[in-house]
Amino acid sequence: MSSIEENLKANGLTLPEAAAPVANYVPWVITGNLVMISGQISFSQSGKITGKLGADLTVDEGKAAAILCGLNLLAQLKDACGGDLSKARRCLRLGGFVNCTPDFTDQPKVINGASDLMVLAMGDAGRHSRAAVGAPSLPLNAAVEIDGIFEIAL
């Protein structure tokens, strides 16, 4: 078990299985020592967190959705690393999309759920650059979608 998975386990979290793509794209691409991971939605085995922030969901519910996205990103990263997360070196960037009403302005607070997860899982190597933007809708009515760029050891 990698230190990332140990850190998650110590906090009561486990990685899901990496989800298969639902359209014409691949879940991740490796170029050089970078892994670009396609957007992961707020989905777990117990279901999706769906709805609009500012109408259907609170900021705390949005943060919970972002944590699910972060766990799904790490699951894809593990898959990209051939099942060995000890190859993960750094989270470089997260791009966060929040399904929200036009007047909702707390997107950064929502995406902090995933940002905090990366730091919890990876320590200082989890600190990253980021975007947090609002969207009028997301696929499958997901509350949050997040993509990521990670550095790995070759």
TrEMBL record:
InterPro entries the UniProt entry points to: Endoribo_LPSP/chorism_mut-like, RutC-like_sf
SUPFAM superfamilies documented for this protein: YjgF-like (SSF55298)
Endoribonuclease L-PSP/chorismate mutase-like domain sequence ranges: 6-143
One Pfam family named in its UniProt record: YjgF_endoribonc
Span of the signal peptide: none
Protein name per Swiss-Prot or TrEMBL: Endoribonuclease L-PSP/chorismate mutase-like domain-containing protein
